[in-house]
Amino acid sequence: MRITFIPIAAAVVLASVMTVGAASGQENAGQAGSETCRGCHEELFVRYEKNVHSGAGAQKRLPGRLGCESCHGAGAAHAEDPSVKTGLVTFAAGSEAESINACLTCHVQDSAVGGFERANHGRHRVACNSCHASPHARRDPITGVETATEPGNHLKQDSVELCLNCHSEQRGRFSMPYRHPVQERAIACVSCHNPHKDQAADARGRNSLCFSCHEDKRGPWPYEHAPVAEDCTSCHEVHGSIAPRLVKTAQPFLCLSCHALPDDRHGAEIGGTQYSSAIYGQCTSCHGAIHGSHEDRHLKK
Ligand code: HEC
Ligand code: HEC
Ligand code: HEC
Ligand code: HEC
Ligand code: HEC
Ligand code: HEC
Ligand code: HEC
Ligand code: HEC
Ligand code: HEC
Ligand code: HEC
Predict the structure, then answer these.
(1) Residue identifier of the C-alpha nearest atom 34 of ligand 6
(2) pTM for the complete prediction?
(3) Which residues contact 15 (CB under 8 A, 6 or more apart)?
(4) Which amino acid residue places its CA nearest to atom 1 of ligand 7?
(5) Would you give the end-to-end CA distance of the chain in angstroms?
(6) Which atom of ligand 3 is nearest to 105's Cα?
(7) Torsion angle of alpha carbons 142, 148, 151, 155, nearest 10°?
């Protein structure tokens, strides 16, 4: 009994060692383990431990690469001699492609961010960590933001300010007299833009985006206004405008950019000359159903 038992146990142990080796031997190569990192980076370790990335979920996604090294790459050489950075992902400026890869190793599985590399930010190598705080970030007392110890998306800053930092040209638009209420924080840039995808890019996507908050403009209309069905932004300046209702230009010029005023319907003949009163007014005071109508093909009701 004894003689046969020992070899079986040994074989089981051996087999499991081999399995672990085969599955993760390469990934493990050159790793020191988080406890080693802790020796010199205690403060970061403590904050990291409170972050979602230290949980079992993160380890399950990338078996064989754990803790600090799941993002920073194999760090044994660095742990031995801190001046050595080879093999280490530092997330420093200039290494954006490598940084993005490090995060996507796991997050490529998320439908929310998986397409990042094909999206505008990804193609222009805007690194994840230019928007997201590291899992061991501090800062805050009173809105320096960062602090990655609470649940959340761990942005470096308030999300609107974050966007406006790089897209400063949009600041002017959002300071115009008529605007989507972003500065007021009633909605945010990310209510319309997914920073990991290009959802506002094409007209189709754009209209369904608008319908998500302006449901009453969704058809189908028995009498539709062609440009409305095509693209809301053919008349509206989405971020902000000097004209009320966010239209690109005030009426009647907005309408006259596409319509030659049909005098026969809008004018009065006085002494043989056609006068159009409509041109001085709001076209929509008569064509009130400008986004589509259930009953009138001239969009009046
Ligand atoms: C023996 C002490 C020690 C150990 C162990 C150690 N580090 Fe470091 N680490 C340092 C020092 C010191 C620096 C700053 C060195 C410098 O800036 O030249 C540093 C810097 C870093 C940096 C920033 C590099 C940069 O250029 O911005 C990262 C990232 C890092 N360590 C990650 C790790 C990880 C991950 C581990 C565990 C695998 C680890 N460290 C283990 C001492 C250590
Ligand atoms: C989820 C990915 C991730 C994990 C896990 C992670 N880090 Fe980092 N780390 C980053 C990012 C991103 C940066 C760059 C921060 C920035 O851009 O402001 C960074 C920066 C650093 C730096 C240099 C700057 C600083 O913040 O002081 C050190 C040192 C560091 N990490 C060590 C560690 C150690 C030690 C661990 C484990 C306790 C760890 N990191 C775990 C993503 C990670
Ligand atoms: C080892 C795998 C792994 C790596 C590498 C990784 N993450 Fe994560 N990340 C996770 C898991 C797991 C979660 C938990 C949420 C989930 O289960 O989807 C998460 C959550 C997040 C969240 C949401 C935070 C929350 O509280 O829910 C953000 C933001 C995030 N990660 C950004 C990053 C960034 C930026 C990097 C690169 C610096 C990175 N991650 C690298 C696995 C990883
Ligand atoms: C331009 C800024 C920016 C960049 C670059 C960016 N993110 Fe984000 N990310 C955000 C914002 C803002 C949110 C919060 C979105 C919201 O509230 O709707 C977010 C949310 C997330 C979430 C939570 C998503 C969810 O719906 O659960 C994860 C995970 C994440 N980002 C990972 C990443 C990773 C990984 C990268 C790089 C591959 C990255 N992000 C690049 C700004 C950015
Ligand atoms: C670190 C700088 C940076 C941050 C932060 C940033 N962006 Fe960008 N963004 C860029 C760059 C670079 C491009 C590509 C070049 C360009 O079109 O300006 C870009 C492109 C875009 C585009 C596409 C522009 C086009 O012409 O089609 C949109 C939309 C956008 N960003 C929205 C956002 C939103 C929303 C946020 C906040 C969640 C944000 N960005 C945060 C740098 C940034
Ligand atoms: C109500 C939805 C909405 C909000 C809120 C919004 N955007 Fe946009 N944004 C759009 C649409 C739609 C487009 C495409 C417009 C077009 O092509 O006429 C766009 C275009 C852009 C572009 C491409 C350049 C341009 O002007 O066409 C950038 C950059 C951008 N937005 C950044 C931002 C930033 C930064 C914020 C927040 C401060 C923001 N957006 C808020 C809907 C929105
Ligand atoms: C996330 C929700 C949201 C999305 C998406 C959205 N809007 Fe808005 N929109 C609002 C809010 C909130 C207001 C302000 C309403 C108010 O002040 O009564 C507003 C106001 C407007 C106004 C001015 C209304 C007025 O009475 O002055 C117009 C025009 C408008 N949106 C058009 C659009 C278009 C076009 C799109 C698509 C590109 C769009 N919106 C996408 C939420 C949204
Ligand atoms: C042909 C030009 C045109 C197009 C295209 C257009 N709009 Fe308008 N929209 C207007 C005009 C003009 C007004 C102002 C009406 C008024 O003052 O009576 C307006 C007003 C609005 C308002 C505020 C007043 C209200 O009726 O609620 C919203 C919201 C709005 N539009 C959303 C949209 C959406 C969403 C789309 C795309 C589905 C769209 N618009 C397409 C011309 C247009
Ligand atoms: C981007 C171009 C464009 C703009 C701007 C525009 N329209 Fe139109 N409109 C059209 C097109 C295209 C049709 C469909 C024409 C057709 O079927 O002959 C149309 C149809 C109409 C009709 C119905 C025509 C009929 O046969 O009875 C009316 C009324 C109308 N528009 C009024 C307006 C008013 C009022 C404005 C300004 C608030 C306006 N339009 C702005 C392109 C535009
Ligand atoms: C005083 C009311 C009134 C005003 C203001 C008005 N319209 Fe009209 N519009 C009408 C009526 C009524 C009709 C057609 C009625 C019919 O044939 O049954 C019409 C028809 C139209 C048609 C369809 C023409 C055709 O021949 O099929 C267009 C396009 C149009 N208007 C555009 C405009 C534009 C652009 C403005 C602003 C410059 C405007 N309207 C201002 C009352 C008005």
Answers:
(1) 189
(2) 0.91
(3) none
(4) 191
(5) 94
(6) 5
(7) 70
199 CB within 6 A, ligand 5: no
The residue contributing the CA closest to ligand 9 atom 35 is: 283
Whether 207 is in the pocket of ligand 8, judged by its Cβ within 6 Å, is yes
Mutate to test the pocket of ligand 6, among 126, 157, 170 (most ligand atoms within 8 A of CB): 170
Quote the strand ranges of 149-236, DSSP E. Answer: 178-179
CA atoms of 271 and 132, how far apart (whole Å)? 71
Q: From ligand 9's centre to the CA of 205, what distance in Å? A: 22
Which residue has 């599955």 as its token pair? 23
Query: For each of the chain's 301 residues, which pLDDT tens digit applies?
Result: 343 333 333 333 333 333 333 334 455 678 888 999 999 999 899 888 888 888 877 777 777 677 899 999 999 999 999 999 988 999 999 999 999 999 999 998 888 898 899 999 999 999 999 999 988 877 776 766 667 667 667 898 889 999 999 999 999 999 999 999 999 999 999 999 999 988 666 667 889 999 999 999 998 999 999 999 999 999 999 999 999 999 999 988 999 899 877 555 676 665 666 666 666 678 898 899 999 999 999 998 8
Residue that is written with structure tokens 């089981």 in the block: 12
How many whole angstroms separate alpha carbon 31 and alpha carbon 12? 26
